[in-house]
Design a protein that fits this description.
single chain; Rossmann fold; 2 domains; 9-stranded mixed sheet; alpha/beta
Length: 472
């Protein structure tokens, strides 16, 4: 007997799903009904399949139709709509699949092998962004690219994406030998790219970086190495300074000495009106990049990320680990919100900024609406254990030092303009008056070497007029 399928949606995506199932009997499925929240469609038929009611009736209708699977075919759903549909579908305790995004619908085909299980990215409620590959290829093909932090989750994804554009060399720099070895092996054995060069080094070591500039002439530098853990950097501000500030200064000097004409630093939305030491040091690093580009000859720029789904230490990764232990899931504040993007979006934003930037810009991805962390936790619980009879608890722990209730990826005073892609914005944040990059790096480096944490925090406040110092 065929598996009976109930489809949420009655638009073009649903029509294509119905057609795909009909034309491929080997799928062993039968669409028994459609659901749509437009009352005018109730009782009508789409390609001979009746629209039975709305998604609010899903649990009862699924039982009445003896459905054995739910397919969500509403690619235009907003964030809250997408998350609500997933939650309703999971309440049926049936397997749930979802169709591709609207771009695939526009292209005219939805194939069954694209209809897949729901993943956390589907809860964003927006299309993941594909960027302009032609301009990236022009900037990368046949050129030598160095990626710092290449063993990290984002740095390694940048390396994977670069392979698609045929660079002459990818120098993968990092201080963790195992992670650098693994990404080098993956590029060679998994992707067939045999021009990846592992480079073991620490960006904090200026002498080492200067020496490397004589060994590895490069055309492009993508600077992903950073400390990004907010509470830890509150405890160890000297480490945030040495990696995020001094490390960035060292990589800028490396890029100049090695002949690179393009440089992109990965930044964060936490650099906007920073409350944390981590965010403040990344804002200072942005200022270093802007200062390096001020002469006009070098195309040095930054890109700002939100929270990257699936990256090491991301909230989704933490939640998934807590789910495997059976809970509870911990949220700092039930009203806390964050912006999210995928690892691939993060990597592509970096290479797009590198290709399009003229120098001094900060590129920002329009990440849609901010998502409430508690809502994300509840949806992940529903996705992971729809039939769990002992509900997994969500525990509020309180905001940690340096954390904000809400992040923003642009300051109100940042001059902005449309970017090279409809979902990319370009900002040129104003540098504080009298900002002297060399003096700032020297002073913060000396304070970090003395491990004078109070002095580091005080100096950061002086350097950044919009810094919101955390108060216990």
């Amino acid at each position: 007997m065929s598996c009976k399928v109930l489809v949420i949606g009655a638009g073009e995506a649903a029509r294509l799903v119905v057609r795909e199932i009909r034309e491929h009997p080997a799928l062993d499925r039968e669409v028994v009904g459609l659901l749509d929240d437009n009352p005018a469609l109730h009782g009508t038929a789409i390609d001979g399949i009746e629209v039975l009611g709305s998604s609010a009736d899903l649990v009862n209708l699924a039982a009445g139709c003896d459905a054995r699977e739910i397919i969500i075919a509403v690619p235009s759903a907003s964030g809250p709509q997408a998350r609500e549909l997933v939650q309703r579908a999971r309440q049926t305790r049936l397997p749930v699949r979802i169709v591709p995004g609207i771009r695939d619908i526009i292209k005219g085909t939805v194939h069954w092998n694209q209809v897949r299980e729901v993943v956390p990215e589907d809860l964003l409620g927006r299309e993941t962004v594909d960027l302009a590959e032609s301009s990236i290829r022009d900037a990368v093909q046949g050129r030598r690219v160095l990626v710092t932090g290449a063993g990290g989750s984002i740095g390694s994804e940048i390396c994977r994406q670069l392979v698609n554009f045929s660079p002459d060399r990818i120098y993968m720099l990092g201080r963790g030998e195992n992670s650098i070895f693994e990404i080098a092996e993956e590029l060679r054995d998994g992707l067939g790219y045999d021009r990846a060069v592992p480079v073991l080094a620490d960006v904090r070591d200026g002498v080492r970086m200067s020496h490397l500039a004589t060994q590895f002439p490069v055309d492009v530098v993508l600077h992903a190495a950073a400390h990004k853990h907010v509470p830890l950097m509150e405890d160890y501000p000297e480490e945030a300074v040495m990696v995020n500030v001094v490390g960035t200064a060292n990589v800028i000097e490396f890029a100049k000495a090695a002949g690179a004409d393009r440089f992109v630093m990965l930044s964060t939305d936490k650099a906007v009106r920073p409350r944390s030491v981590m965010g403040a040091t990344k804002r200072i690093a942005e200022l270093l990049v802007q200062s390096a580009a001020a002469g006009g000859a070098l195309r040095y720029m930054a890109v700002r990320f939100g929270n990257v789904l699936g990256s090491r230490g991301s909230v989704v990764t933490v939640f998934q680990r807590q789910l495997k232990r059976g809970g509870p899931l911990t949220v700092t504040d039930r009203e806390a919100t964050r912006y999210f993007m995928t690892i691939r979006e993060a990597a592509m934003l970096v290479v797009q900024g590198m290709a399009e930037g003229k120098g001094g810009e900060v590129f920002v991805l329009d990440m849609g609406e901010a998502i409430r962390i508690e809502e994300l936790a509840r949806n992940l619980i529903t996705m992971a254990q729809p039939d769990n009879t002992a509900p997994i608890e969500i525990v509020e722990t309180g905001l940690r030092p340096g954390e904000k209730l809400r992040e923003q990826y642009l300051a109100e005073t940042d001059p902005t303009q449309p970017g090279p892609h409809p979902q990319i914005l370009v900002a040129r944040p104003t540098r504080p008056a009298g900002f002297d990059p060399g003096a700032v790096v020297r002073e913060l480096s000396e304070l970090a070497e003395r491990c004078d944490r109070d002095a580091i925090r005080a100096r950061i406040v002086e350097l950044l007029p919009d810094h919101e110092a955390h108060v216990d």
